[in-house]
Amino acid sequence: MPSSGPRVMIVDNDADTGTVLCEVLTEGGFSCQSARSVPAALEALHRDVFSLVLSDYVILDDTDGAEWATIEKLVAAARPAPVVIFTGWPVDEDEVTQHGVSFVLRKPADVESILEAVAQQVPAAAEPEQIELVRRYFEALTRKDWEALAELCTEDVVYHVPGSDPTHSRSAIGHDALRRLAASSFADFSDAVFSVTEVLPLPAALIGRYHARWTTPAGQPAELDGAVLFHVSDRAISSIGVRLDLQRVASVMGG
User: Fold this and answer.
1) What 3-state class would DSSP assign to 55?
2) From CA 157, how far away is CA 167, in angstroms rounded?
3) Are 88 and 106 in contact (CB under 8 A)?
4) Class of the 7-121 domain?
5) Contact 27, 249 (CB under 8 A)
6) For the domain 128-253, what is the CATH code?
7) Using one digit for the tens of pLDDT, what is the confidence trace for 223-238?
């Protein structure tokens, strides 16, 4: 079922990139429409109202500097909605401001970074109880309290991070499977401490950003910054991680 959340226009002449970006944004509760050419995007922007435009930088095969003239047309048509540029090219920050672009999202970007960039331009609200759920999730991870972890979730909770990494790319459905997976995943991280650095609300989800520190089996200190995508239903966590194919995302938008 299509999302009824804030509307985002994707402008990219590569069909795969546009499709993946729409999948990522729909996962967060945004409503997405894509255009493979600037004329098609301008037609849609003149006809409908959007909350944000996310556009590739190099969207025309033209001479140097033509991209900014094209971006300015999108900025004018989208106004007052912000325009975000998604690119791997070394775009100058001064030029970004000069041409009316609100933000530059650098390639490569992971799912959470894409959702976070859009959410910062199109703020959403979250109930305090939902934010507290995310904080309690990381507190339970730190205590290695797998029963408390499961109690924060719905009976049919889904934990799923796709991919081929045997440590991190794992799936579980339901309380029992979640408890077993958590105990197995963190068996070698007995002293791991998770600190929540930010909970960012999306229209239909939340991103929990965290800082983790632990001691490696060799006795060396280690730390990591990461993010988890949560969905909440009936005041309980219904999914943890992401359902998208991260390897496909990386192959399409990695550079």
Assistant:
1) strand
2) 20
3) yes
4) alpha beta
5) no
6) 3.10.450.50
7) 988 888 899 998 999 9
